[in-house]
Design brief:
By secondary structure, the chain is of the alpha+beta class. It has 13 helices and 4 strands. The longest helix has 23 residues, at 2-24. It is elongated, with a radius of gyration of 24 Å.
């Protein structure tokens, strides 16, 4: 009788734990897996009394996850902090804010634990549901970056406003995109652009190239979902990295462009997984200021292997103009 009761209670608790762990979107609840197996083992060995102990522990862990199981605060983490330099590692650092926001290692391109998240995000934000739609979206973003106009973000640090415009050599026309900045946002932009207190206006040039981080994010998603082969993943990342090194001359310029582009990104309101505080904005601050950040450690101008045509990706056009932040 006691064995039956222990089996029923254990099954109910394990079922509740699976539901909580699956719905939490966190990896921590799954660390209780050995305890769940221990419940099953105790019942199978005819030790129902002992089975109640791991059952109680698993129930307490599941309850704690429901009550206090909020997502970890953004943190700069690397799976292999001392790993050698590589094009893939450099490219992963570009899109690091999206991983840092989740307190996940920024330096892992294919992250199997994020498969479910990537599948949802790729579909909700980009309409990507398979390999073909992924390739089409990556190619569309690539064409937009290369063929679209180069844009400046003019930030009025005194008034706390920012507006997008064409560069002066193309008339400097206002694009009609404006944003009102909060005090913390003004402080951050002043910091990443290294503008002293006496500066009233800063111009972040070619800020639209921050969208390269989205391309890398899509590639990481495709690799995590096993849609992309390692060779195709490397080719896509090298293509993006080569373009970015030609547009900017430092991580600080990328940081400024990322901040500017993110402020104007219309889809950031769709980031349900970053509910509550603006975790990506927090992650951008960490990457800009933390000494352990790849943006402060990796050399910007590290040699990158050029992508050959037979690798399935086109290299950057030799005629493209490099335009740095003013």
């Amino acid at each position: 009788m006691l064995t039956v009761v222990a089996g029923i209670v254990g099954a109910l608790v394990i079922g509740a734990w699976v539901v909580v762990a699956w719905g939490s979107r966190r990896r921590q609840p799954w660390l209780w897996t050995p305890v769940a197996f221990l419940v099953v083992l105790m019942v199978a060995l005819g030790l129902p009394g002992w089975a109640f102990l791991p059952t109680a522990v698993l129930a307490a862990g599941s309850f704690a996850e429901l009550v206090i199981g909020t997502r970890e605060s953004p943190a700069v983490r690397a799976k292999e902090p001392d790993a050698p330099l590589s094009t893939e590692r450099w490219a992963a650092a570009v899109a690091a804010p999206f991983r840092v926001a989740l307190a996940e290692p920024w330096d892992v391109v294919a992250r199997s634990s994020l498969r479910r998240r990537y599948r949802r995000v790729l579909e909700e934000q980009w309409g990507v549901t398979d390999l073909e739609s992924l390739r089409a979206t990556v190619e569309r973003l690539h064409e937009e970056l290369h063929q679209g106009p180069s844009l400046d973000l003019v930030v009025d640090l005194r008034a706390g406003t920012a507006k997008s415009r064409l560069p002066r050599e193309r008339g400097g026309g206002d694009t009609g995109t404006h944003v009102v900045l909060g005090e913390e946002q003004v402080r951050r932009l002043r910091s990443v652009t290294r503008a002293g207190e006496e500066r009233e206006t800063v111009i972040i040039g070619a800020y639209q190239w921050w969208k390269s981080a989205h391309v890398i994010r899509l590639v990481c998603g495709g690799a995590s979902l096993d849609w992309l082969s390692p060779a195709e993943t490397q080719a896509m990342l090298r293509r993006v990295a080569t373009d970015l090194q030609r547009r900017y001359s430092s991580w600080s310029q990328l940081a400024a462009a990322f901040h500017a582009g993110y402020l104007l990104w219309p889809s950031k309101g769709m980031l349900g997984e970053y509910s509550g505080q603006d975790r990506i904005w927090t992650a951008l601050g960490l990457l800009s200021e933390d000494p352990s950040s790849p943006w402060n450690l990796l050399p910007w101008d590290m040699p990158l292997e050029r992508v050959l045509p037979d690798q399935g990706a086109k290299g950057a056009s030799a005629g493209d103009e490099v335009r740095a932040s003013e």
